[in-house]
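User: Okay, second chain of the day. Same drill as before: sequence in, structure tokens out.
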Amino acid sequence: VKIVHLERLSLLEEIALVRSVSGVIGPHGAGLTALLWGENLSVIELFNDVVKAPYYILSTVLNHEYTALSGRPVDDRPKERNRNFIINPSDLDELLCELDDSNRK
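Assistant: Same drill. Structure tokens below.
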């Protein structure tokens, strides 16, 4: 797993990067639109407690393997969707192992 800030890349760099990876992990947001450039990706979308469907739908249309992982809010901002959240590292690790096992088959 490598942390990438897509907003720091040019569009051509972003396209090349997403075409070269087997999976994408990211919080719900516009950055996941980059899924358009990938083929047969494993997608893990991270949420606080507010789950939205657009990237599930996009992943389904593009034939990507999609999984959502919810964390827990760590602040009490008035709008739930804007709250910072934390993901349990064990939950993410378990999910990555499951995806790795299914990709080996």
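The two ends are 21 Å apart (CA to CA).

User: Thanks, on to the next one.
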